[in-house]
Amino acid sequence: MGRYYDEGIVPDELRRDFDVYDRIAQLGVELGTFEDTVVSLAGANIPGAVIHESGLVYLSGMVAGARPMNDDGDRVEHGQAAGVEIANGHLRRLHWALTCGGEGGDLNDVLYTVKALGMVVSTDVEFGSGPAVVNGFSGRWQSVFGGALSEFAVDGDDPGGYAGVHARTAIGGFTGRFSLEAEIIVAISPAFAEAIIRNRGWIFPLPPVMLDKVRAARA
Questions:
Q1: pLDDT tens figures, 74-113
Q2: Alpha-carbon distance 58 to 9, whole Å?
Q3: What structural domains does the chain harbor?
Q4: Contact 161, 143 (CB under 8 A)
Q5: How far is CA 69 from the centre of its chain?
């Protein structure tokens, strides 16, 4: 496990026993490159991630999908696929938010997941499949960190643990030219959060001065 994870206050019975990156590879999730993902915050009003000194990491909403939702099975599957796409994007963003400054941590140092919010686009007043749509997002997240919706779970039990399980709100009724917007909050150790904030600040992407600092350290 990660350096900071080993020092985290997680009961021994609930500790992950696998490398998160092994699951990411098995699922075919692309994490991108430093050059493409670690960019300047200049000109952007909303960051992709904010790291709090308590250890909470807030990931801003991402959108995916091309069609609004209704209760038709094919349409719900389209929304679930959008959820998987968003989860993959959040994994990519979180990976670089935790690793780009070289503080010694990565996705293996995520202690557990706190909360997800899924907002499903649907103008159908009878729409009732919001939770089913957002399960696409939650299932991919749990497949990486552990949980009952994981692709690795057997009879609702993931042998790797439950660090991907999260409190969740899944609601429909929004308008937009996409299917789903989802956001998520995870927990890392306060020591890891402090190391990141002291080195490069609490915002990702990075403010220009911090991006220059990080790039210089990698050179």
A1: 999 999 999 999 999 999 999 999 999 999 999 999 999 9
A2: 20
A3: 3-218 (3.30.1330.40)
A4: no
A5: 23
